[in-house]
Fold each of these.
Amino acid sequence: MVKLSVVIPCFNEEASLPSTLERVIKVARECVTNYEIILLDDGSTDLTWELIKGACLNNPSVRGIRLSRNFGHQIALSAGLQSALGARVFIIDADLQDPPELLPDMMRALDEGADVAYGRRVSRDGEGFFKLVTAFGFYRFINWLSDIEIPRDTGDFRLVNRKVLDAVNAMPERHRFLRGMFAWVGFCQVPIDYARLERIAGESKYPLKAMLRFAITAITSFSVRPLRLAMLMAACFAVASLLGILYVVIGHFLGGTAQGWTSLMVVVLIIASLQFLLLGIIGEYIGRMFTEQKGRPLFICSENCGTEVTAG
Ligand code: UDP
Ligand code: MG
């Protein structure tokens, strides 16, 4: 069996791919005798695929998969994870922002019993103020919203074992926020700290639009809390409406208000509160439909012991 699979999604990475491959192959050789490198071409329009084909000819441990168009980082990565055969899978970007040389440390963590060793960025070089602030805010916001703890300042850079990989591959959802899914499956996960470096070549394939889409996928995949907002507003509005109704009715009896104002206000306040309540109820049902429809497994078993008693 292949001991280690390295999955590298590549989108227009002709400039960085050769040195990435060189470093990844070197470190993989140091760690295991038997490895495979899966290069995923996510619909590149430059020479990435030609480079991948060349690498496959040069080294039988390298495999290439080319998607029919650009499907996005998370889908490309999912495709790679589905086809990985290794007992352990190492996920790394093609731009060398995350050092492949961390692999031995991650392997050690798994040898010592962890199921996942994920890279945790303690610093980020060469990334603009905007990216730093949005990334900082994003991980905190998503944790505040979601029901499970998603490790902060963590990307997809990690080493996972077969158990964890199979669990993630068995999650059929289509909007994939992989780092959240890896957190969701549980097991023993340990962080490995490192400094995130500048891209060695090319530019980020995550422009603002892609980043926003990514953030929305992350939030909606792991939280139905925004839908509950209507319920919260209904409660606040009900209290405010009661006070409002009290105010206009007292005003009516004290006199001096325009004809018809009291009844109009009472009706408006009651209807508005009812609307919020109904939206909240609908939101609750939609939230449940959404979780049902994701079709995630109910639970994931970590280990079994003892003998199962069979009937008869
Ligand atoms: N990538 C991909 N498809 C895309 C965008 C990015 O396969 O549509 C790959 C890209 O080649 C790189 C990794 O995903 O290996 C991370 O992308 P990038 O470095 O641009 O993201 P950033 O580090 O800026 O968040
Ligand atoms: Mg990058």
Amino acid sequence: MIVTTKELFKAAYGKYAIGAYNINNLEQCMGLFRGNVQSKAPFIIQISKGARAYTDKLMLEAIIRAADKVFPEAIFAVHLDHGDEATCMDCIKSGFYSSVMIDASSKPFEENVATTKRVVDAAHAAGLVVEAELGQLGGVEEHVQVSESEAKLTNPDQAKEFVERTGVDSLACAIGTSHGAFKFTGTQGLHFDVLSEIQKRLPNFPLVMHGSSSVPQEEVRRINIAGGKLAGAKGVDDNQFLQAAKLGVTKINIDTDGRLVWCRVHREHFILHPEDFDLRPAGKEFMAAYAEFIAAKNVKLGSAGHLDEVRAMVTK
Ligand code: G3H
Ligand code: 13P
Ligand code: ZN
């Protein structure tokens, strides 16, 4: 059942976070649904601009519609990840998405406000909800001065003004994470102090944490043994997810970890079975491994086991 992120946030706020997982193809979609159904978790499917263009946006939509039928017990939102204005408008018009993210965070504050407001107006008129971003993720290296790195993090006062002026439904905040497999070079981590200040100014308002893959060291080790070159890859400590959830983080975005599972399974498979050239055996292994990863991740997010309660909320 496709629902809006707003409905999922209402159920989860302050207690746990909903996993927002990116998909690009059929195998990821199957693993994702299996893992969420097995762990009885509501979830968010994220589709990026790149994923829409990988085959054809209609292919991905059709795969998700089919999964909705194959897994009638699943409850999920379909969300555009990191959209520009044109892509947001296209998704709003399509009638398939339940929420969109407008990412104008690289633009000056006033331009971010104006662009986000245009998307919010169009989305709300069509019954969709909107996530926007304020602050800049990533690239906060150890050699950067504290004042410089603070400037990239979301400013709590600006966050309040941004939400009030745009009418946006949730806000992605920069609190020390970055996208990809190489998030930290040393002892950096999440800025709970900044998060807490944002929550004080925006109580009961859902916040979003991008760049939240934990880059499991065991995956990295196995990938490297199997010929990969990911030395130094490091991610977010997923034991901190629930602490973030209590401070208002209601959606946690994970993509890189799924790519690592894919990479490890395929590298190991073809080393162990050099005679193999069939795509199905490795594909089956990946779907099973990805489902297992998702189910375990939902335990860390606290979303595991909440499916029936969310069903009761959205169907009443
Ligand atoms: O935050 C970005 C996501 O990891 C999506 O990545 O644009 O390569 O699909 P992508
Ligand atoms: P990761 O690269 O940490 O998986 O972050 C994904 C993300 O933020 C998608 O929007
Ligand atoms: Zn992101």
